[in-house]
């Protein structure tokens, strides 16, 4: 390696890229082999970075970068002409082996961009396919981190990954047949991930959402083609809420998930729960419903009803067969009052106050009787 470093440095010095220096400060270098078996010189600036005041600039998310690619085919020729003209004007040259022109698909940040949309990079997916069965919590976090990068491509990802996520808690590592089944299903879902459409901000957006006893499922749609998937498993407490409350929660969660697309424009929400069609005209009956409704106030949307048989996409996202689960359990509001009264009657402090009050009332009644006798 030292020989390669010396040779690489001599070539760069002869080309005028570097020059000898006697500075007391320096950073180590290392050579990394590229795909064409040539060497790339890298400088280890970790020590310098630790004392450097960085720029306060937000790093864009993957979704933001992918969103900018819609219409890239039409703009590509114009950008290419501009770039080549500037290179020619300033007498710069490019390495032909590093250039690709007129490609039908290109790799980009772990994704493959095509004329049809975005799909997962099969080179990355092959690593998931050959992923060994996790034997500890650290390995489980590793597979969840890798698969989570592509969760927008996977229907009911949140529900599929629920058994694996449970292993990362402090209850102990227990690899069961249910967890193994979830592990295999998650890998299979990524191997057959669909092509997602790039969002077109000139066309209307639609959210198709549904809730079951297991969780929430939603699809972000344009022209009946999926742009992204979203799902999340419900907590044990949420699973026992009424069907209406779960459907309303699913609607709010889906809107908040894609709020960066929806704020400031009119969009559509498609649901298979008929009463949600008149959501904005209904009388709110609980504080939780009022809280959820307030979260929808900044948005401009219309709700479209679609029966469950036709709303198969989101309906399937929210469901996963689990034996012994309630579909829903609705408790009457009066039950809460009964529980409060029962608790008050058993409370020692309340019991003592009740006895004192009873004694006072009894004393007053005796006094009233004595006055009437006199």
TrEMBL record:
The keyword Nucleotide-binding does not apply. Keywords: Multifunctional enzyme. The keyword Phosphoprotein does not apply. InterPro entries: DNA/RNA_pol_sf, Retrovirus_Pol_polyprotein, Rev_trsase/Diguanyl_cyclase, RT_RNaseH_2. Residues 175-269 form the Reverse transcriptase/retrotransposon-derived protein RNase H-like domain. One of its GO terms (molecular function) is catalytic activity. This is Reverse transcriptase/retrotransposon-derived protein RNase H-like domain-containing protein. It comes from Mikania micrantha.
């Amino acid at each position: 390696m030292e020989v390669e470093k010396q040779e690489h440095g001599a070539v760069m010095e002869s080309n005028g890229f570097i020059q000898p220096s006697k500075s007391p400060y320096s950073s180590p270098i290392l050579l990394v082999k590229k795909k064409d078996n040539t060497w790339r010189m890298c400088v280890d600036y970790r020590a310098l970075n630790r004392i450097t005041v960085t720029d306060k600039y937000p790093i864009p998310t993957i979704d933001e970068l992918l969103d900018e690619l819609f219409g890239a085919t039409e703009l590509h020729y114009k950008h290419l002409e501009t770039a080549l003209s500037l290179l020619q004007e300033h007498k710069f040259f490019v390495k032909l082996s590093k250039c690709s022109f007129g490609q039908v698909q290109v790799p980009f940040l772990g994704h493959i961009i095509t004329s049809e949309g975005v799909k997962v990079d099969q080179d990355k997916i092959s690593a998931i396919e050959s992923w060994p069965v996790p034997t500890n919590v650290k390995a489980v976090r590793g597979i969840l981190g890798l698969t989570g990068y592509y969760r927008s491509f996977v229907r009911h990802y949140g529900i599929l990954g629920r058994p694996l996520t449970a292993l990362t808690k402090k209850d102990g590592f227990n690899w069961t047949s249910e967890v193994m089944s979830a592990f295999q299903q998650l890998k299979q879902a990524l191997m057959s991930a669909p092509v997602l459409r790039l969002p077109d901000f000139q066309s209307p957006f639609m959210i198709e959402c549904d809730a079951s006893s297991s969780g929430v499922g939603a699809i972000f749609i344009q022209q009946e083609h999926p742009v992204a998937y979203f799902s999340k498993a419900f907590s044990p407490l949420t699973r026992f809420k009424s069907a209406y409350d779960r459907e309303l929660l699913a609607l709010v969660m889906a809107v908040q998930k894609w709020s960066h697309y929806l704020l400031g424009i009119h969009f559509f929400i498609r649901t298979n729960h008929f009463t949600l069609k008149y959501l904005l005209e209904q009388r709110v009956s609980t504080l939780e419903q009022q809280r959820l409704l307030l979260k929808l106030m900044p948005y401009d949307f219309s709700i479209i009803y679609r029966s469950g048989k036709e709303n198969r996409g989101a309906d399937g996202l929210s469901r996963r067969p689990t034996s012994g689960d309630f579909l829903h359990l609705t408790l009457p509001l009066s039950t809460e009052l009964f529980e409060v009264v029962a608790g008050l009657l058993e409370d020692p402090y309340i019991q003592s106050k009740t006895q004192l009050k009873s004694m006072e009332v009894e004393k007053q009644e005796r006094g009233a009787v004595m006055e009437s006798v006199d």
